[in-house]
Amino acid sequence: MTTATTLGDAVFSLNMTRGEDFLYKSSGAIVAAIVVVVIIIVTLVLILLKMYNRRMRTRRELEPKSPKPPVPPALDPNSNSSQQPATVTFNPADIQVETR
After folding, report:
1. PANTHER family from the entry (predicted)?
2. What's the predicted TM-score (pTM) here?
3. Distance from C-alpha of 90 to C-alpha of 97, rounded to nearest angstrom
4. d(Cα 26, Cα 15) in Å, to the nearest integer?
5. What is the pLDDT tens value at each position of the chain, 100 positions in all?
């Protein structure tokens, strides 16, 4: 199949064999098939992740709960002890300015 298009002074000629013509006409179907396959793969991955998440959640819920480790009183925000929080004092003399 030969196609010639005249555009002003330029003439474009395109020679296509029978195989190239078939590929050109079926390229839309090929792209659509690739898109469908990608969508199916993504859907399968999402379903597998959902099943894995559900299985891990049920496994965590069925495990016996371990007691919480004791929190040191200095780090416990709800403690009513008389300890004062650690303070940091800032001395301007600690800053060393680099002179050039």
Report:
1. NONCOMPACT MYELIN-ASSOCIATED PROTEIN
2. 0.44
3. 16
4. 18
5. 555 555 555 544 556 678 788 878 888 999 999 999 999 999 999 999 999 999 999 988 888 877 776 665 555 556 555 556 677 666 666 566 676 6
